[in-house]
Amino acid sequence: MNTALDLMLLGQQAKTAARRLATLDTVTKNNALLAIAAALLTHQDAILAANAADLAAARARGTSDALLDRMLLTPERLAAIAADTCNVAALPDPVGEIFDQADLPNGLRLHKRRTPLGVVGVIYEARPNVTVDIATLCLKTSNAVILRGGSDIGASVAAITIAIQGALTSVGLPATAVQSITDPDRAVVGALLRLDQYVDMIIPRGGSGLHRFCIEQSTIPVITGGLGVVHLYVDATADLERAVPLIFNAKVQRPSVCNALDTLLVHEQVAAQLLPVVAHELCAAGVELRCDPASRAILADQPAAATWRVLPADPTDFGTEFVGMILSIKLVNDLDGALEHIATHGSGHTEAILTNDPAAAERFTQEVDASAVFVNASTRFNDGGQFGLGAEVAVSTQKLHARGPMGLRELTTYKWVGAADYAVRK
Amino acid sequence: MNTALDLMLLGQQAKTAARRLATLDTVTKNNALLAIAAALLTHQDAILAANAADLAAARARGTSDALLDRMLLTPERLAAIAADTCNVAALPDPVGEIFDQADLPNGLRLHKRRTPLGVVGVIYEARPNVTVDIATLCLKTSNAVILRGGSDIGASVAAITIAIQGALTSVGLPATAVQSITDPDRAVVGALLRLDQYVDMIIPRGGSGLHRFCIEQSTIPVITGGLGVVHLYVDATADLERAVPLIFNAKVQRPSVCNALDTLLVHEQVAAQLLPVVAHELCAAGVELRCDPASRAILADQPAAATWRVLPADPTDFGTEFVGMILSIKLVNDLDGALEHIATHGSGHTEAILTNDPAAAERFTQEVDASAVFVNASTRFNDGGQFGLGAEVAVSTQKLHARGPMGLRELTTYKWVGAADYAVRK
Question: Where is the Aldehyde dehydrogenase domain (chains A, B) (predicted)?
């Protein structure tokens, strides 16, 4: 098999399909989405059998139970995925939106028109549901998509793609609007990343290693993200009683995701009052605290200290995404100390301040450079669903094109359209 | 000299400066811009002397007169550059703009706030004025900038940078907000393109070779452009009399730029009436026509044909940016033929249709995939000034972040800001 040639063909087909998709109206796209939802259910046996084969092979390789669960499809999960597809059909279609209109002195009636990007390439891990998520969001925005799921779920992705392509064909759309790369060779990812002749955007969905690989190798614009070193600063004026459940929510509600809290920064004036209560709540939930000397000194004095897991922080505990039940804690002299720490250690993902001082809130929101900055709200809100986007394609920590949660609109671009009465430039 | 280490330092300094710039109000930035305008004039002798040295060296290398003129600074040109700087001060400041506000059911009061990108890297050719253009547009948008001008103008860029940095210092701003790389070694460009730890966006200002180099080498998002293969399609319903001066404007007004017309596509029903008049006008202005067999047959029959420069087109004459007084011509059967030709040969820069049929205009604007699509308007309008942007940083032919002419707003990004009353995620 000649990977480079095969990929060129895939790219050409995707680009041709994209031209067709760009002419579709919303009703046609929504009908295709409903056909996909139905096809997932009619193809259920084939999809679940393929998934069972993937799982058996992964189990034989000694894959952990957590990863196996992430790979697993069941009739219930497949039904939920089909329901999500119907929900995408119900979302507003951003394509065709007209904005920034202007009548100019040179005679030009100008506007911007929202258009599809063209062809989107998505590289993701062993989560079969992402196949459907991304395919449907791309279809809704008239983009063709080339999918490359983790090699662990190759059979599942292939079976799902067959179902999707059958549905596309059944409503008269090109099957090549949604294509999957099933070659398990990792070199194929590198080749996909250089297919700039056909692919307009790459979205990596995975850890920071995948993101870094894409940044290094791609000649196509990459939506990067994947790393969230998240801080929350408790200012001297914060309502400490209400701070505790908020900190608990930021750390404990779902510690494995990128908007979960990693480092708690506390104004030294309120640390003695706040930290014992925080430690009481978090440690009871199983959180390990890694404390700078000043915060550790406060906690060491507490009667319950012996039952808590409080360790001295080493320097690498600041600037680390823990992706689990660990929290680093540091005292700061003031807002400037918090801003300096975040500028040094933040990853530009999610940062928060708790304060009742509007001036401190304004300085924090202005000066912290991150995709989302919260005042008196949990860091866990940095999410497409919570932001009302209806869907989340990815969370971007870069600054171009889209920053933070990306919804349907972020799968589009625009063109300038200028009309006139046979006008020439003077 | 250790280029990699020097560049790291430059990047660190730029990032530190960017933090300071992000806190500035508009008045402070405008004062700095006016100080730069004044400094260009007070440093006039030093700048012109450096420029004379660059020119002497270039002349000794046998540089063409056209390139030497592009490099040349005079007191008048320097005064015009200073005036442009004052004009940038007068433009509205996009930073801090608040948009997409929403009060969400989860208690979040959400908005997007327009913010600087951070650090911008710009690589450009032997045009000393670009140094000031880009530095001032970046300062206006609170971005730090690292400039790398062509090695031919190294002394000029260094002298201009000294003037700018002196002005910044005089108003209390960090000189490192505007830095130039004066190392003539070309390897330094490759190193700059990998400084993703510090630099948020790369803008190449030059030909397609430079753009391709940046796409291949950069780990930083690149704003690509630089190649305009521009088509104009004359539909059967077009007003042919008014089409002629428009085609003339598109081709002849400034043939060296990227929005100048390259290929004329003509509906076969109107070709016999239109083309002789077009040939008469264009050939009189010195344009060479490269025609497909059908259009050449029409022109060969004309009485004046012997005085025209009409050559048979070879396949490479379609899909080529001529950057000069050459136009390729092709007849098409209908709108579909024009759309197919543009999809195959266009570079996504600028495309136009002349038609009096609203349905044809709508199909053309919807289906043509380009940064700007014009109906009954010259392709020369694809320009930041003509679009009323006040300034043009670059013209992008890629689809992410910004497409077409980029003004001040396209030198910014946004952050999400969410405030609540100690809200937690359910």
Answer: 12-281, 319-416
In a domain, A395, yes or no: no
Q: How many structural domains does chain A have?
A: 2
With CB atoms and an 8 Å threshold, state whether A387 touches B108: yes
Would you list the DSSP string of A337-404? HHHHHHHHH--SSEEEEE-S-HHHHHHHHHH--SSEEEEEE-GGG-STTTTT-S--SEEE-SSSS--E
B286 & B411 share domain:
no
Find the CATH number of the domain harbouring A355.
3.40.309.10
- Residue A366 has its nearest CB partner, among B23, B196, B398, at B23
Please report the number of interchain residue pairs, chain A to chain B, with beta-carbon separation below 8 angstroms. Answer: 228
Q: B186 CB near a chain A CB, below 8 Å?
A: no
DSSP code at position B411: G
Query: In the beta sheet, which residues pair with residue B123?
Result: B148, B204
Both B324 and B412 in one domain: the answer is no
Q: Tokens 């098999």 identify what position? A: A1
User: pTM of this prediction?
Assistant: 0.94
Domain of A79 in residue numbering reads as 3-224+401-419
* pLDDT tens, position by position, A225-242: 878 999 999 999 999 999
Question: Same structural domain for residues B130 and B175?
Answer: yes
Same-domain check for residues A251 and A298 = yes
Could you report the per-residue pLDDT of A372-414, keeping only the tens digit for each? 999 999 999 999 999 999 888 989 999 999 999 999 999 999 9
Residue among B248, B369, B396, B403 with most chain A CBs within 10 A, to mutate = B369
